[in-house]
Amino acid sequence: MQPYTEEFYNWQQAESKSSAREIVPFVCELIRPRSVIDVGCGVGTWLSVFKECGVENFMGVDGDYVDRRMLQVEAERFQAKDLKQPLHINDHYDLVVSLEVAEHLPVECAATFIESLTNLGPVVLFSAAVPYQGGTDHINEQWPEYWNELFSAQGYKVIDCIRKKFWNNDRVRWWYAQNIFLFIEQNHLENYPRLQREAECVEQSALSHVHPKNYLTKMDALKNYTNMMETPDLNNMPLGQTVNFFKKIVSALPGKTIKAVKRKLRKPKAADAKVVAS
User: Fold this and answer.
1) Whole-angstrom distance, CA of residue 96 vs CA of residue 183
2) Any idea which architecture 6-207 has in CATH?
3) What is the pLDDT along the chain (278 residues), one digit of tens a residue?
4) What is the DSSP letter of 138?
5) From its phi and psi, is residue 70 left (phi > 0), alpha (psi between -120 and 50) or beta?
6) At a CB cut-off of 8 Å and minimum separation 6, what does 150 contact?
7) Using CA of residue 181, residue 186, residue 191, residue 192, what is the dihedral sign?
8) Angstrom distance (rounded) from CA 187 to CA 173
9) How does DSSP assign 79-136, residue by residue?
10) Alpha carbons 236 and 204: distance in angstroms, whole number
11) Beta strand 57-62 with 181-185: parallel, antiparallel or unpaired?
12) CA separation (Å) from 230 to 120, 199, 234?
């Protein structure tokens, strides 16, 4: 996973806080965790909401690149770990959280990452980006069935009770409403009668759903791209309209393409480098 900018974490915090304040109380009602660990916690936004809900024993784990000055929880509640490697953490937690993290890790790390999560506790609150969802440094976007197979290999059962509760909640960002599941170790299901009933209702071959807001976002981008192909006469177009036209072109490009173009523009040409050197 690559280091992220202050701008990225500010955006992430703003997008996550309202979602966490809706979802966390419901999860606490279901699980009643006394201890929580968030793997891939970023600046600890979700952990800060668990703290608001009365959880006193909690820990956040993420890469060493996280700016400690931006943490939303105490610095001693954060551990720097390489998430591409197996996690070796001695403590065990009632609830393990990992939201929109797994898609940032190489595909060859996926099974090990899920094993690390299940080693930390009997209940996992998990979400990961679906194919073509898009986002910063997404390199392994998969459908929920893919992750369900990996959890199932560790003896965990999928519970799909959160999405249907928050699907139409405008205070919950669509990627959480679309992707979030509980996974519970089968031997512990009897401790949660309500979730045991939910587990019996899950259709494991039909976990993949696309949220309308996700769909419309992608369709708007496609529409912009289609409009881009109908190239107007730029020679006779007012300057303001020309600028807007090229803005539409850029907005229709995939994020990776935009990054590649920016890198290319920042990289000096060989001829320019010679001039500077002389």
Assistant:
1) 10
2) 3-Layer(aba) Sandwich (3.40)
3) 455 666 666 666 777 899 999 999 999 999 999 999 999 999 999 999 999 999 999 999 999 999 999 999 999 999 999 999 999 999 999 999 999 999 999 999 999 999 999 999 999 999 999 998 988 889 999 999 999 999 999 999 999 999 999 999 999 999 999 999 999 999 999 999 888 888 877 777 678 888 878 768 777 777 776 666 665 665 666 766 666 666 666 665 666 566 666 666 666 655 554 544 44
4) -
5) alpha
6) 110, 111, 114
7) positive
8) 32
9) EE--TTS--------SEEEEES-GGGS-GGGHHHHHHHHHHH-SEEEEE-PPTT---T
10) 57
11) unpaired
12) 54, 50, 12
Domain ranges of the chain: 6-207, 214-277
Instruction: Residue count of the chain, please give it.
Output: 278
Burial 86-121 (b: 16+ CB within 10 A, else e): ebeeeeebbbbbbbbbbbbbeeebbebbbebbbebb
Contact 100, 62 (CB under 8 A): no
Residues 6+ apart with CB under 8 A from 224: 248, 249, 251, 252
Q: Which two tokens stand for residue 162?
A: 């959160």
